[in-house]
Amino acid sequence: MFKALLTRWKFGNRTIGFPLEAPVLPERFLGRPIIGPEPCGENCAKCFEVCPTTAIEIVERHPTVDLGRCLFCGECQQACPAGLIRFTSNFSLAANKRSDLLVRHDAEQKLVEKLHVEMLRLFGRSLRLRQVSAGGCNGCEVEVNVLGTIVYDLGRFGIQFVASPRHADGLLITGPVTENMRLALQKSYEAVPDPRVVIAVGACAISGGPYIDHPQAHNGAASQLAVDLFIPGCPPHPLTILDGLLRLLGRMPAERISRL
Amino acid sequence: MSSELALTCRHCEIVRYGEIPVLGYDQFADTVARAISDGDRLVALFVQPEERAEHRLFAISTVREEGSLRICSTLVGNAYPSLTLRCSQAHWFEREIAEIWGIEPQGHPWLKPIRFEAAPVGITEFFSVPGADVHQVAVGPVHAGVIEPGHFRFTCSGEAVLHLEISLGYQHRGVEQALRGGPTPRTIHYMETLAGDTSVGHATAYCQNVETLGHCHVSFRGMVLRSIALELERLANHAGDLGALAGDVGYLPVAAHCGRIRGDFLNLTAFLCGSRLGRGMARPGGVAFDLDEDQLEVLQQKLDQAFADVSMTAQLLWDTPSVVNRFEGTGILTTSQCLELGIVGPPARAAGVEQDVRLDHPSDVYSFAQIPVSLWHTGDVFGRAHVRWLEIVRSVEFIRTRLITLHAEPVRASVKALEPNAISISLVEGWRGEICHVACSDGDGRFRWYKVIDPSFHNWAGLALAMRNQQISDFPLCNKSFNLSYCGHDL
Fold this sequence. Notes:
heterodimer; A: alpha/beta; three-stranded antiparallel sheet; 10 strands; 27% helix; B: alpha+beta; five-stranded mixed sheet; globular
């Protein structure tokens, strides 16, 4: 008992200051890419060729990156001869609409808008989620679990993962929705009382990720349900997930809402 | 396998496809069964189609204490007499073969799909026991926590579990099928997502195969950095598991500290390559990221700090009699059961089976530097926890020693075109145990097929046995002490 207290005292408080304080991210972390204004070289498709999930499209000689498909491997950044694609350390990646996940050279980032008034009144201070792992590699589950540790301490925002969908206000879905998980996902969704939110976490749950168009999988949660929040990454950094959830609930402090 | 009939090779060595012996079925079955009874362990048993309409059944076994592998094959039609009747280790493999290829192992004692490729998932006949007080408890696929889906069917008499039947397949997403014809830009990402918490382990096994077939020699620095990423992956997961075990017996201080310390190890991996799970680090030819002198210094310091923290926390666990009491004697998997089923990794070592790929089949930097095998003798939850702790100590020591012996050189070498019509077997000691990848190239140097065996594939049956005569309420604790992968199994 005494030793346990001593250890507790020695370790001190380990909860990060986010969202009030800017977090520290690893130097090599790849966040939201930005795309240079110049047009691509004539017939150059090098970024397209190296992309593992065809997340890049070249539209009128400008690359467009779909964060919903992106695995954040950085191959395109290395392949582009003109250095047009550059990954930044911006970890705010989540969006309400699938189309807001497209990164273009001429468009501003559209950040998550909070839920509408009635939903916010219900969930803004207390959101209980049932997580459904619908295929995939367990990487997203690993990072979602991390939110429960003392470092991120999700409970301080009133967000909690619960055991039963009947106790939940919504689903947090990871994985591409394998055919073998389709029914279980559907049943879990139906067991959540209305109104409910649906959150898709990770490239798999948004687009199918590395398993796009596999006959055994369904290209993500949106193929089955209406999704309210898309959180990209493979897997997303815990901060990316937390950032998305807080913005959805209108819990992001004013000074961080505009600053990226 | 008697050596004259099977081809003896080492892992990470080019084997000509044409040189793999094709035996008559009876000879094949005798060879495999005799080898297993002589002490070999079945590493892989799988079917792949030949160019003609035939199917070829391959068996790979590891020769105890020799560091070599034996491989042989036979041609099978729609059915063949089951090997499982002669060696239990073939049980799960034969179910997989029957499911994928529709080839029936005749006489197999419990032939059911393991991934439900074509049948509705989970709908199957479960093992049943007659009796008035016998009842079944069904759990999953969606569990109470944030974990992967799987279905568990307990047959109980009161609190006691007579048998646990494990029905998986919910994560099946067709990876092996998609690997054919590769490598493509997506191949390495398939490898890193076979089991997300073993990204480095599986990616390393793949890299070793491509390097073997592509005649590539990885620099020493490249090997060292790759092994550091692999050991960090082990550290993060083992630390997390100790915390989870503490949580399952209600000792919350350790659960809380270990959750954080696990994150510290993940952050160290992110310090190497930007990804907490080590995505993007291991690449064919070595690694994608180097560290300069200052960064190596920082890595050393952060590692020391994390190790000091995990030591202090683990000590709390061992010093708390109520925790040790709950661990001891719970979920025993005996040495003979481990050997019979071919269990790998910490559950085997916890039962005194001296088996570790880093010692038995060293490759990369493990050929030059040995990590002592972490052993215990009880085979219970305590043993599996203690082996994890010993491995934490030894992995940290290994990384420390490697960091001071590094000299400057490129970290990634180029890989040539893959050798045509050849196979390479690659083994890696992932944190869960032996990872086996078998790559086979066609005439153009593309993957004719690619076979993956995650350690969980061997070990799920072990969890079922460990649960016999336990209380059903001990299941979370037993399950955590194995901590097997669903996606690595389902592929």
